[in-house]
Amino acid sequence: MKTLHMELDWFANTNHTGFYVALKKGYYHDLGIDVKINGEFGGCGHQFAGEPDIVVAPEPAMLVYMDETPGEEQVQAVAVLTQVNDSGIISLKEEGITRPRELAGKRLTHWTPEWFHAVIGFAVDEDGGDYSKVKLVTKDVGDITETLGNDGDAVWIYKNWEWFVMKHAGYDCNYFALADFYPVLDFCAPAVAAKTRLVKNEADVIRAFVKASDQGFIDAAKDPEEAAKILHGYTPHFDLGLLVESQAYVSGLYLNEAGHWGTITPARWDRFSAFMKEKGMTRKDISGANGGYTNEFHG
After folding, report:
1. Positive or negative CA dihedral for 98, 101, 103, 109?
2. How many domains are contained in the chain?
3. Is 297 within a domain?
4. Are 197 and 254 members of one domain?
5. What confidence tens digit (pLDDT) does each residue in 152-168 have?
6. Which uninterrupted H or E stretch holds 6?
7. Predicted confidence band at 194 (pLDDT cuts at 50, 70, 90)?
8. In angstroms, rounded to a whole number, what is the distance separating the alpha carbons of residues 21 and 228?
9. C-beta atoms surrounding 206 within 10 Å
10. Which residue, of 2, 131, 150, 184, has the fewest CB within 10 Å?
11. Burial category of 66 from C-beta neighbours within 10 Å (exposed 0-12, middle 13-18, buried 19 and up)
């Protein structure tokens, strides 16, 4: 039995349900792998180095890491969790923020990586706004209900999670998806990467991981309520009603047109990799052709 350590980009939520379905139903075990899943608040960006064999993170964080990291700790993307980038800006409805340029003059929470500003700055300025007029508040948001209206007016979120957290808590919010304004921002997020040493030397292990995960996400797409209940078993601190509502939404985003999970489309990855190089976030264009990702483990 081969043990794989997987580090999530955040604490476990409905972005990750398929992994827990595969774990609960024994899909990993049946293919000879023991998957250990760890997730925590504020995980995005620091979780690549060291023990993890599999890492969940947004494409921009992966590209920066790939650009800076040599040798044994290098990674390659092998899957994407959803077939669209389900991220964007949430705000209380009273703030009147319905598009990127309307962030000017508002308090936007942000985390430390420079690519955050490359992405959001691009969106605001291209929409006719002025990113220099956005009031930036440094904060890694854990509880969205404690942040909006208090520390910040707007937060970059995954809709499938924080939108439903706010809705479940009774708040009336606005939301816009970044990808709805600019196709280049439909990047792969969250994506899944494996250490390159495993991709090269233990390809059968990565293939088994992808195959079992695929079945877990297929099951979650077919029966969202059952999937939410399975996730609740691993995250009992979340309200089951919240998980069911969030899961009903995100289950529709997991699979491609062929009914499978995880495949990375060149347009999504490569377009954004070129964007990151253009903005000076990476020194090179880490496209699929240049080893940024592979779909070889699917199918």
Report:
1. positive
2. 2
3. no
4. yes
5. 999 999 999 999 999 99
6. strand 2-7
7. very high
8. 9
9. 25
10. 150
11. buried
* Alpha carbon distance 79, 298 (integer Å): 9
Q: What is the CA radius of gyration of the chain?
A: 18
User: What is the extent of the structural domain holding 16?
Assistant: 2-84+187-278
Q: What percentage of the chain reaches a pLDDT higher than 90?
A: 91
Whether residue 179 sits in one domain with residue 229: no
282 close to 46: Cβ distance less than 8 angstroms: no
Tokens linked to 297? 């483990």
Which residues are bridge partners to 54 per DSSP? 6, 194
The string of DSSP codes covering 10-27 is SS--GGGHHHHHHHHTTH
**Backbone phi, psi, residue 137, to 5°:** -120, 115
Strands (E), 82-211: 87-92, 107-110, 135-138, 154-158, 173-177, 191-195
CA 209 vs. chain centroid, Å, equals 18
Decide the pairing of beta strands 87-92 and 154-158.
Answer: antiparallel
- Find where tokens 């508002």 sit: 106
Is residue 42's pLDDT more than 60? no
Is the domain of 274 the same as that of 194?
Answer: yes
- Identify the weakest region by mean pLDDT among 138-142, 166-170, 233-237: 138-142
Q: Angle 224-234/203-222 helices, nearest 10 degrees?
A: 120
Q: What is the CATH number of the domain that holds 134?
A: 3.40.190.10
Give the amino acid at 70: P
pTM, two decimal places: 0.96
